[in-house]
Amino acid sequence: MSTKEVQEQLVNSMKHWQGIENRSVESTGAVIAKTDNPLIRLVMEIIQRDSQLHHRVQQFIIDSIESKPISLSTDEMGSIAEMVDNHLKIEDQMVGLVDKALGDVKDKKMLVQEYLLNFLVEDEKKHAAMLR
What we know:
By secondary structure, this protein is an all-alpha fold. It has helices at residues 3-34, 38-66, 74-105, 111-131.
């Protein structure tokens, strides 16, 4: 398969995926409207925002193929490298705090708090991995 064919297939896949993400936003919105449970609402809001962000990333991929090629020069990276390194330290601090909190709640029958702390630590680790 040629590069052009792969690009076309990727654009089509991203557009299809965007439709699925839109349905996810609608679905989570329906659950949010139906429940007063704060934990369920929070989880649905998290998923909804992630779906909205995924849609944006998918559009970026489409745009990078159809209209705006993406480049990243060493000069661009060099000009922000120190700031990115500083932010990585912040992310690592947050992971450390959440890890400590997870250790504190372990075996304390704090399932909701442990569930949410696990979400936070994975999200912070994901941020750090993206920057690295």
